[in-house]
Amino acid sequence: MSQESSNDKKPTIPPYMKAISGSLGGVVEASCLQPIDVIKTRLQLDRSGNYKGIIHCGSTIVRTEGVRALWKGLTPFATHLTLKYTLRMGSNAVFQSAFKDSETGKVSNHGRLVSGFGAGVLEALAIVTPFEVVKIRLQQQKGLSPELLKYKGPIHCARTIIREEGVLGLWAGAAPTVMRNGTNQAAMFTAKNAFDVLLWKKQEGDGRVLQPWQSMISGFLAGTVGPVCTGPFDVVKTRLMAQSREGGELKYKGMVHAIRTIYAEEGLLALWKGLLPRLMRIPPGQAIMWAVADQITGLYERRYLHVAPS
Q1: 19-53 burial string, b = 16+ CB within 10 Å, else e?
Q2: What is the number of other CB atoms lying within 10 angstroms of the CB of residue 217?
Q3: Where are the domains positioned within the chain?
Q4: Cα angle at 197 between 194 and 198, to 5 degrees?
Q5: How many CB atoms lie within 10 A of CB 228?
Q6: What distance in Å separates the CA atoms of residue 88 and residue 83, rounded to the nearest whole number?
Q7: 17, 24, 57, 131: which sits with the fewest CB atoms below 10 Å from its CB?
Q8: How far apart are CA 200 and CA 221, in angstroms?
Q9: 198 half-sphere exposure, CB direction, 13 A CA radius
């Protein structure tokens, strides 16, 4: 086969390698950024204005509950991130394969958007919603004395929710989670590819491995778009997941009712509560995840899909 014809259709990285790269990136990200996620959740659940901002919220948690409280919910968070990125990266690669041009093997931006949205919906229903319900229930508990806490840990929390609210209680807030994650991933995968090409002239399948700092810049920039667009979905998701039936009637009946209630009672800006900690959490998280994932997929690409230049 001639060099020209072999270049017409570039070899691609298999979905399982994308999944592995995502899972390892998720472990590193979770360990680094859990405190910001705890602060974000506390701010979103703060209806009475106890916390004056990110720093005040963090310092209050440390002062009243100890430093360890900033890592509340780490076990479900780390497990959730690892599974989420495994499914996200793997399913996105599978979806993209359906949109690849049969001649060149390239994927259009439309294909990337649809693939990203599909991966986001899949992760929201299969992994994100039940894990975040447990995580948020654990994070909203104040204090560190186990005997004073309703939920003693992730497993106990999940069992309690199922016993009191039924299995579907673990999927509270599924609708805004699907909307948030689908939109986020559609934007993120498309933007990441665009920044790789624009900033570093990196095309998938070209055999080049980005430096970790280059991946971090592309990942950080790609991770900034989603939180601004999906802020209301994230706030509503958190409120729906945090409420339980133990007090009788639920305050929020669903996604649309929650948006209208929050807007009526707290104003328009309340729908973007926690945006700053989300921007402190998601773009750095994407930077860390992509720095790890790009190295793994890049090494695979260079070793198995291309002959290293002499």
Answers
A1: bbbbbbbbbbbbeebbbbbbbbbbbbbeeeeebee
A2: 19
A3: 14-72, 74-171, 172-296
A4: 80
A5: 12
A6: 8
A7: 24
A8: 13
A9: 11
The confidence score (pLDDT) of residue 3 equals 45
Structure tokens at 306: 């291309």
In Å, how far are 23, 30, 79, 102, 212 from 84, measured between CA atoms?
Answer: 8, 12, 8, 29, 22
Phi-psi region of 259 (alpha: psi -120 to 50; beta: other; left: phi over 0): alpha
In total, the chain counts a number of residues equal to 310
Please, what CATH class does the domain formed by 172-296 belong to?
A: mainly alpha
Given a contact cutoff of 8 angstroms between Cβ atoms, the answer to whether 48 and 286 are in contact is: no
* Half-sphere exposure for 45 (CA within 13 Å, toward CB): 20
CB of 252 closer than 8 Å to CB of 239:
yes
179: tokens are 């909307």
Asked if residue 171 lies in contact with residue 129, where contact means CB atoms within 8 angstroms, the answer is yes
Closest by alpha carbon to 196, among 181, 211, 184, 183? 211
10 Å Cβ neighbour count for 230?
Answer: 22
**Token pair recorded at residue 91:** 């399913």
| Per-residue model confidence (pLDDT) at position 47 | 81
| DSSP code at position 251 | S
In the chain, what is the straight-line distance between the N-terminal and C-terminal CA atoms, in Å? Answer: 21
Q: Could you tell me the mean pLDDT of each successive run of 10 residues in the chain, 310 residues long?
A: 47 90 91 86 86 92 92 81 93 94 84 96 94 88 77 91 94 93 93 94 84 96 89 91 76 91 94 89 93 93 67
Closest C-alpha to 134, from 170, 168, 167: 170
The Cα–Cα gap between 218 and 223 comes to: 9
**Residue 119's closest CA among 86, 78, 80?**
86
CA distance 244 to 239: 10
Q: Do residues 39 and 59 lie in contact, with contact meaning Cβ atoms separated by under 8 Å? A: no
